[in-house]
Every structure is written in C-alpha cells, then in structure tokens.
Specification:
alpha/beta, Leucine-rich repeat, LRR (right-handed beta-alpha superhelix), 21-stranded parallel β-sheet, four-stranded parallel β-sheet, elongated
C-alpha cells in the first residue's frame, strides 16, 4: 500500500491510483494542480505528502473522499489562498503542514473547525504571512504541537490563540519581538513548552503588568537562533521570575551581542532565575568575547539551578566563586569545550558544587587521568563522571577519586590498557572505542560494563566481575564464546556481543542454535551475529548457518573412510588372487625392467645356447643326463644352469632375467615338480612375456613326465598353445 513517487519530475498526480494505496509520497516534484478526481479512488489513503511542489490550485473537493487520511503535507508550494472546504471531510486527520506557501492569512473562515482529531499543525511562511486573527484557530481545543512561521508578523488580534485550551509545544518563528508579549499573554495558561526561533531580541522589553497576575503553565522555554543584548537578557530574566512555572530554559545556537555588563541593569531586584531548575546552553556565540565581563553580577541568580549544560561554547574556566554559588547544582555538563587540568583546578575549588552528583567533561583538553582524579577530590557528592573523548593515552597504576564514584565514562580516550587506577566502588564503567586487548581488573561492585569497539579476543573473566548484569562487548575481535562462559556470569541479564568475527565451528553453532533462552540475553540477536568463517558461511547469521556432516563429525567420517578403504583393499586382494592380479603385476614389473635394456641383445652378448629351467627335484635327470648329453655333443651346446652360472650376491630375479636374455633359447623341463616350484613359475612367466614382446619362438618344452594340460595356468596362453603342438 506504499507508493513512493518523490523526486520523479512529475507535473501532475499520476492516474490509476486505487483504493489499495495507503501511503502516497509525491514530494519534490513539479505538480501544479490538484483536481477533484485525482484522488477520488484513494478511499483508504492515510498519508499524503505533496511537499515542495508548485501547487497553486487545489479544487474544493480534492480531498473529499479521503476520509481515512491522518497525515497531510502541503508545505512549500504556491498556495496563495486556503479553503476550509479542503478539510471538511478529514475527520481523522492528525497532522497538517501548510508551511512555506504564499498566503497572507489563514482564510476568511475557520480552516480547522472540522479537524477534531488534529494533533500537529504547522502554518505560516517567512515573508507574506503577516496577520493572525481571532477566528484562525477556532474549533481547535488540543494540539500536541503548533508551529507558526511569522517572521514578518504585523497584526496579532488578542485572544487569537485562547480558543486552543491546551498546547503541548508551540514553535514561534518571529523576526521581531514586538508582538511576543501579546501572544504570550494568550498562551501562558494553556502552554507547556514554548520554543522561540530566529528572533532578534535587541528591542525586547518585558512588561510586568501584562502577565503578573495570570496563572502560568509553561514548563519549558527554548530560544533557538535568537540574538540578545545585555539589556534584553535582563528582560528575559525578568520573564523567568514572572512566568513562575518555567522549570527548564534552553539557549541553542544563540548570539549574545554584549559585553556582560549587567551591573547597571536593575538585576539587584532579581534574586533568582525564577523557579528555573535546568539551564541548557549550546553553541553560544559572543562576538565581543575578549571584552566580556566576569559575570560576577549574576552569580547570585544561580543558587536554585540544579542542572546546567553548557555545550560547545568555548568555555575554558568556571570561576571558583561561581562554582561556590551553585549550591543546588546536581548535574553539570561542560562537553565540547576547552577545559584543562589547570582551569579545572580553579573550577573545582574548595566548597565548589557541594551537591554535584554528575559531571560531564566530554571532549575537552584533559590529558592526565591521575591529575584529573586528584582535582575532583573536593567534590564529595560526585558519583557519575564522564571524561570521554579526551586524550589520556595511558593510565597510571594508581589514582585518587572521590569516595562515592559509581559511574565512570572513559570511552574514546585512546587508552591501551586498564590498571588499578580505576575506583573499586564503580558500578558502571564505559571504556568503549579504545585500544584495549584484554580486561583483567577485579571490580567487585561493577554491574554494567561497556567495552565495545576494542580489540578483545575473549569475554572477560567472570570471577573478576561477580555482580555484572550488563555486558556490551560488540565490535571487538571475539570469535567464539561458550555456554560455560555465559553460565559463569551468574547475574548477567544482557549481553551485546554483535559485530564480532565469529568462527562458526560445530560446537559454537550447536550452542548458539540450541539455546532458546539465549535470545533473552543477547542484544540484537540474531541479526547482528554473523559468521566470519568458514568461508562458505561467511556473512550468514549464526542462527541460520549450517555445516556439513564431514565438518562436524570428522572422526566418524575418517573412521568410515578407513573402513571403506580396508574393505576395498580386501576386495582388491581377493580379486587379484582370483584373477591372477599378482601375476599381471609381476609381468608389468618385468616388462618395465626389460624396457630399460636394449630390445634385442647384441650378438656378442649372447653367452649361452639355452637357459635350463627345471625343478630342483628333477636335478638328477637334468644334470646327469640332459646336460651331459648336450654339452658333450659335437659340436657341444653351452647351457646356463642356475646352480653353476648365476652370479653370487646378485638379486635372484635379476639373475633369471639376465640368464634368459643372454640365451638363445629357454628349455623348460616340465614335470609335476616344475608346476609346484615358484621360481620355475617365475621363469616361465618371464619367458612367456618374452614370447609376446619379441614375437620369437625362444621356448623349448620338454615333458619329463606326462602332466595334465590344466596344470599349466590359463594365463600362459602362448605356452599352452605350444604344448598343444
């Protein structure tokens, strides 16, 4: 139901809008006209933004069908006339912005009488809006916020704002204060919070008779981008006294065009700043600062003030006498100023700020932690100290602090280690955004520890922090934590450990994903807790990451793989045995050995006519009959016998191969004993290889006795063929 059409260079409201649209943003376009039919089908529209267009005409019934509209922004257009007919059906409208148009008045009749539920109203412009009349706000009884931009206001009809019985927050843009008191008289009894903007109070004069007898309800008064003089400042102080309900005053981005000489300005009749308890000053500009008086004439006015904030105003010193006059002060914020140890010594003098509980010195010029602690020993009631964003760099081994210190902020001070300098009474410690790589301090009363944006690798030891309930340790380099570590913090209620580089191991994921109660302890869980490794889950939320079985059960997987390999080897062995795999391996080895030598031995290397392969059990017949017969033949044959001609000490396999290769023929004396001999089988194996490799007829078979053909293994196919002949 959300339609975003801002900054699209549209010159008219798009056609085709339906009842499904609930929010329509057409701001920052070039629309000039809103017609009766443009929005008639948007009956469920709740939010309509037409800001910063060029609209000069809105037809009377343009918004008639928008009975559910709650938010309407027509600001910064070119509307020169406003009509009550636009709003007559907008009964549930809560927010209406008409700022920055060209109208001079709010129409001839009451614009807002039908808007009974209106809570926020913004009207006026910086140039042409000059008149506020009695009927302008008729019908409005309660507003949470009313903003009136009337820098050139010339006419204010008395009681124009009295019809609004209750205004929580009124923002007035007035260039001159001429009509300010007239407006104030009408709203002083119905307003909670008044904010005055962009006003030059040089000519402001407070008339005591105007509101002295009225019942006032204003609690807070804010001056934003307002200019004062010494004289007009005194008039404002008078206002504080007569508008008795004011408890809080704020000056934001204001300019004091004076030298602070209040001695001749009737301040002696004013004892206090009314009932003001909280004074806030931000970005105060004093053009004649180097001529400025010491403000001693207004010291006496500060006795009842309980909270003071002077921020980003180049304060380098609070005089001792002023500090001693601030007898009710409980909270002092001097952030973003120029305070140093030298000036702090004068400010925190004896009897200064006797009831001060909270002191904020963030982003000043402090450099020594040890000296800062010593200078604050005069503040007996001090419990909370913020000295963050100062350049301490290091921390001494020992320090002195006020005895009631409970909260200390040392964030962004560039310290790289913590020592026993910290007070043992601390309940809250903030050391975020430093260079810490460990935390090993014993702080028995510490309840909250803020140590984000450092370089810690693990959670602190729980035994050092027995009552810790809140731990914020995000943006460090922690890669894991365990259930045991969390359980050791017996009182821990909140842990913020997001933004770290977690190693999503199986144990860590099992713990993080298996603990339902973890979500109640971990802040920003699960979105801020993401894996950094392993690489395939990097960037995933810890809650969603999943690892494979092999990553989480490695021992079981290794055992299974080993068992599978053992079974595979066993199966391979059985197959090798059944399919003569060993023989093929031997043949392959023999083939490789043979390939290292010349394919055919040179003639001069042939030493024997035949190599005789026989079983030792047939040696009698071979040696005494066959060898004798052949070697004494004419011409005699030269035979190679293993008993006689093998080289002693040489590997037997090499002897066999060399003898066969150095012989013209190989004689096999086949018998039952030959088939049973392993060495005879090997000689038969290599000879069989030679038959294949050299394609010759080098084998001679002699059947010493009849043997079954099946006794010759089937793998010796060529030898079996020779036997068949």
């Amino acid at each position: 139901g959300v339609c975003d059409g801002h900054s699209r260079s549209l010159n008219s409201i798009p056609s085709g809008l339906t009842a499904g649209v609930k929010s329509l943003d057409l701001s920052n376009n070039e629309i000039t006209y809103v017609g009766n039919r443009d929005l008639q089908r948007c009956v469920n529209l709740k939010t309509l933004r037409l800001r910063a267009n060029e609209i000069h005409t809105v037809e009377e019934d343009s918004f008639f069908h928008l009975r559910s509209l709650e938010y309407l922004d027509l600001s910064y257009n070119c509307l020169s006339n406003l009509s009550s007919s636009w709003f007559r059906s907008l009964y549930v409208l809560k927010f209406l912005n008409l700022l920055g148009n060209l109208y001079k008045t709010l129409g001839e009749t009451s614009l807002f009488s039908h808007l009974l539920n209106l809570r926020t109203l913004k009207v006026g412009n910086s140039n042409s809006f000059t008149e506020i009349r009695e009927k302008d706000f008729a019908g409005l009884t309660f507003l949470e916020e009313l903003e009136i931009s009337a820098q050139n206001l010339q006419v204010y009809v008395p009681k124009s704002l009295t019809s609004i019985q209750n205004i929580s927050h009124l923002i007035l843009h007035l260039k001159q204060p001429v009509l300010l008191l007239d407006i104030l008289v009408d709203i002083v009894s119905s307003l909670d919070y008044l904010e005055l903007r962009d006003t030059d109070l040089h000519t402001f004069h407070f008339s005591e008779a105007s509101i002295s007898e009225m019942n006032t309800s204003i609690k807070k008064l804010v001056f934003r981008n307002v200019q004062f003089t010494d004289e007009s400042f005194v008039e404002v102080v008078k206002l504080f006294n007569y508008v008795s309900g004011i408890l809080e005053v704020e000056f934001d981005d204001c300019t004091h065009d004076g030298i602070g000489d209040f001695r001749t300005l009737a301040l002696d009749r004013i004892r206090y700043l009314g009932n003001v308890e909280t004074l806030t000053i931000r970005k105060l500009h004093i053009p004649q600062f180097f001529l400025f008086y010491d403000l001693s004439s207004i010291y006496s006015l500060t006795g009842r003030v309980r909270r003071v904030t002077i921020e980003n105003s180049k304060v380098f010193l609070v005089p001792c006498l002023l500090s001693q006059h601030l007898k009710s002060l409980e909270y002092l914020d001097l952030s973003e100023n120029l305070m140093s140890e030298e000036t702090l010594k004068n400010s925190a003098c004896e009897n200064a700020w006797p009831f001060l509980q909270t002191l904020v010195l963030r982003q000043n010029r402090l450099k020594s932690l040890e000296k800062t602690g010593e200078l604050l020993l005069t503040l007996k009631s001090l419990t909370n100290l913020d000295i963050s964003k100062n350049n301490f760099l290091s921390m001494p081994e020992t320090c002195q602090w006020p005895g009631r210190m409970k909260q200390l902020n040392l964030s962004s001070t560039r310290i790289h280690s913590l020592t026993q300098c910290l007070p043992q009474t601390l309940e809250i410690l903030d050391v975020s955004s430093n260079n810490l790589d460990s935390f090993s301090l014993i702080l028995p009363q510490l309840k909250e520890l803020y140590i984000s944006r450092n370089k810690l690798k693990t959670l602190p030891d729980a035994s050092f922090l027995p009552v810790l309930s809140i731990l914020r340790i995000s943006r460090n380099i922690i890669n894991t934590f365990s259930k045991e570590q969390l359980d050791s913090f017996q009182q821990l209620k909140t842990l913020d450990a997001g933004g770290n580089s977690f190693i999503c191991s199986c144990d860590f994921l099992a713990f993080a994903q298996g603990q339902q109660a973890l979500a109640r302890v971990l802040a920003d869980w699960p979105d801020d807790y993401r894996c950094d490794s392993p690489s395939h889950v990097r960037g995933q939320r810890v809650q969603d990451a999943q690892l494979s079985l092999s990553e989480c059960h490695r021992a079981a997987v290794v055992s299974a793989v080993c068992c599978a390999l053992f079974l595979l080897l066993l199966l391979t062995g059985v197959l090798c045995h059944r399919l003569h795999g060993l023989w093929y391996m031997k043949m392959m080895w023999a083939w490789l050995q043979a390939k290292r030598k010349p394919r055919k031995a040179p003639r001069r290397d042939i030493c024997y006519d035949a190599f005789v392969s026989y079983s030792e059990r047939d040696s009698y017949w071979v040696e005494n009959l066959m060898v004798q017969e052949l070697e004494h033949f004419n011409p005699p044959f030269k035979l190679c016998l293993h008993k006689r001609d093998f080289v002693p000490g040489k590997w037997i396999i090499d002897n066999i191969i060399d003898s066969i290769e150095k012989s013209h023929k190989t004689i096999f004396v086949l018998s039952e004993n030959f088939v049973k001999s392993e060495w005879c089988k090997y000689e038969l194996d290599f000879s069989h290889f030679r038959l294949f490799d050299e394609n010759n007829d080098a084998a001679i078979l002699i059947l010493l006795e009849p043997i079954d053909k099946k006794a010759i293994p089937q793998r010796f196919c060529k030898l079996r063929k020779i036997m068949n002949t």
